[in-house]
């Protein structure tokens, strides 16, 4: 079922973004150690008192933000809409849901649903499941050298676009518009994807974040350190740009 496969790929992007957000926060071990948040109806007095005593815990705050229904559910709904396009022309996420319900006894659908549910639970703990076929497929598409080179190229392209969008030659209205800068970065990112991977940029773009997080988790001392070095390099370039704009 093509739409089911696309749904798995699309939600994997969402979950990988969540993992990346937690990783960049610097507190992933603490987030991972927290139990699932309870609804008010499920809480005992001890639960409520314990939550109050840890209300300033940054790891807990991170989990609370991630598990906000509108935040994660909106992203997942958008992912389902994109996957539904592979069902038939004009299909919506409701049509995809109805189709999956009609095939709920299909072993393939059951396995895919279990994989998505597992990824959902693990991502809010700051990691992807150990046994996650979508992540393994993404890593097969992306070898470590290619993905790091692309990671650096995308970062530099967005920095260059941001520099142009905020330079003195651009109108004051454009420089003061966050939307204008974001559009410039998005355009630069799209152009970079098309330039680096002209024949399969859509598939690579969709699997990029998932492969990046999986490679990082599997090889923190090697791949993870090289990724961190690139992030620091890009951060230094960003600071230089910001300093030159203030000068």
Write a concise synopsis of the structure shown:
This protein is 77% helix and 0% strand. It is built from 13 helices and no strands.
What does this structure look like?
By secondary structure, the protein is mainly alpha-helical. The chain has 2 domains: 2-131, no CATH class; 137-246, no CATH class. Helix content is 77%, strand content 0%. The protein contains 13 helices and no strands. The longest helix is centred in the C-terminal third of the chain and has 27 residues, at 220-246. The radius of gyration is 20 Å and the shape is globular. 21% of the residues are buried.
Please write out the topology.
Blueprint: H1 2-25, H2 28-33, H3 45-53, H4 58-66, H5 69-84, H6 93-102, H7 107-123, H8 133-141, H9 144-165, H10 172-175, H11 178-196, H12 201-218, H13 220-246
Helix pairs in contact: 1-5, 1-7, 1-12, 5-6, 8-12, 9-11, 9-13, 12-13
> In terms of structural class, how would the helical and strand content be classed?
mainly alpha
Helix content: over 70%
Poorly predicted runs are: 37-53
Largest sheet: none
Instruction: Quote the average pLDDT.
Output: 81
List its traits.
247 residues; mainly alpha; 2 domains; 13 helices; 77% helix; globular
């Amino acid at each position: 079922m093509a739409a089911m496969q696309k749904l798995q790929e699309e939600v994997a992007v969402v979950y990988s973004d969540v993992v990346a957000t937690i990783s960049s926060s610097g507190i992933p071990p603490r987030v991972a150690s927290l139990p699932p948040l309870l609804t008010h109806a499920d809480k005992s007095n001890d639960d409520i008192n314990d939550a109050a005593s840890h209300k300033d815990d940054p790891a807990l705050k991170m989990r609370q933000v991630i598990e906000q229904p509108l935040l994660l559910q909106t992203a997942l709904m958008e992912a389902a809409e994109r996957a539904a396009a592979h069902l038939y022309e004009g299909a919506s996420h409701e049509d995809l849901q109805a189709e999956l319900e009609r095939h709920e006894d299909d072993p393939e659908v059951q396995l895919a649903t279990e994989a998505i549910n597992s990824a959902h639970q693990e991502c809010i703990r700051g990691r992807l499941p150990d046994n996650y076929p979508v992540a393994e497929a993404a890593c097969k598409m992306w070898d470590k050298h290619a993905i790091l080179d692309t990671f650096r190229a995308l970062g530099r392209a967005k920095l260059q676009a941001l520099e142009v969008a905020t330079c003195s030659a651009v109108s004051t209205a454009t420089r003061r518009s966050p939307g204008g800068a974001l559009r410039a970065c998005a355009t630069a990112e799209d152009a970079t994807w098309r330039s680096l991977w002209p024949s399969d940029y859509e598939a690579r773009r969709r699997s990029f974040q998932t492969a990046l997080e999986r490679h990082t988790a599997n090889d923190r001392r090697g791949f993870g350190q090289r990724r961190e070095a690139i992030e620091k390099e890009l951060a230094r370039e960003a600071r230089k740009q910001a300093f030159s704009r203030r000068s």
